[in-house]
Amino acid sequence: MTDASSSDIVGEKQTFKIRRLEITDKRNGYMELLSQLTVTGSVTDDEFDKRFKEITSYGDDHLICVIEEESSGKIAATGSVMIEKKFLRNCGKVGHVEDVVVDTEFRGKRLGKRVVEFLTDHCRAMGCYKVILDCGVEKKEFYEKCGLVNKGIQMSKYF
What we know:
Blueprint: E1 7-11, E2 14-20, H1 30-34, H2 45-56, E3 62-69, E4 74-85, H3 88-91, E5 93-102, H4 111-125, E6 130-133, H5 140-145
Parallel strand pairs: 5-6
Antiparallel strand pairs: 1-2, 2-3, 3-4, 4-5
């Protein structure tokens, strides 16, 4: 396991801690936060627990981080990364960043940038040769501030 331990971020009269997702975070607003990004559906506690255990079984190859506002315990931001193992580049690895979102209540505190840095640091520690993500045009400037560059277009087919 790489060292993706928690660290404190101090904001205006608020202290935030970045750490891995914990099974108890569903009751701290994790699913509500994800719903600010896209459709989440009605995930029961049992479904959450089962998926959490599945994801954590992948170890460092699938990391979900959260930023917790410490005084309330509320999840203020999140993001995830999956490590793809390839044959290219001498059996290299690529990090795929997904699901980066900051709660509307906490935006403007650079938490999104901190999530992206945490995830890219994890990828570097895992030996990835690059980190990629897909985003809408309206998020391009944010990700450029995080050190990423536009390398093409995204294609999708939804089922």
